[in-house]
Amino acid sequence: MSFLYQVLKKSKMLDMIGFVDPANTSVIGCGNPTERARSLSVSYERGKPGQIFLVPYNSGCHWMLTVVNPTEEVVYFRDPLKRRLITGEWRTIVDK
Questions:
Q1: Rounded distance, CA 95 to CA 82, Å?
Q2: Distance CA 47, CA 3 (A)
Q3: Residue 21 lies in domain
Q4: How far, in Å, CA of 83 to CA of 17, rounded?
Q5: Quick check: 55 and 41 in contact, CB under 8 A?
Q6: What CA–CA distance (Å, rounded) separates 60 from 74?
Q7: Which H helix or E strand runs over 54?
Q8: Cβ atoms within 10 Å, residue 43
Q9: pTM, 2 dp
């Protein structure tokens, strides 16, 4: 994330991408699902119109990435282990 931030900064593209702190989203030590959904909502509200957010998520096993465009209500879920996120807590949090 740090490397990507530096690349975007150098290219003067920081207004396009918003980074969400993984300490506010992951299962371990981040509160209940309602608190995590509120944290995401606050991040989106603080962003600029049209900004896309990178939301790292750790289910307790490994890291995954959720890419959110709140303006268009589009969400992409990326899992390097190629598992599908069909149901579950994270989907509910992001949907809220």
A1: 21
A2: 20
A3: 2-95
A4: 25
A5: no
A6: 25
A7: strand 52-58
A8: 20
A9: 0.76
Predicted confidence at residue 29, as pLDDT, reads 59
The total domain count for the chain is 1
Token pair belonging to 79: 């899992």
List of residues 6+ apart from 8 with CB closer than 8 A: 14, 16, 17
Taking residue 49's Cβ as centre, other Cβ atoms within 10 Å add up to 7
pLDDT value of residue 7: 92
Buried residues in 72-92 as b, exposed as e (16+ CB within 10 A): eeeeebeeeeeeebeeeebee
33-65 pLDDT per residue, tens = 778 788 888 888 888 888 999 888 877 777 888
Residue type, 55: V
CA 70 to chain centre: 11
Q: Tell me the three state secondary structure of residue 34.
A: helix
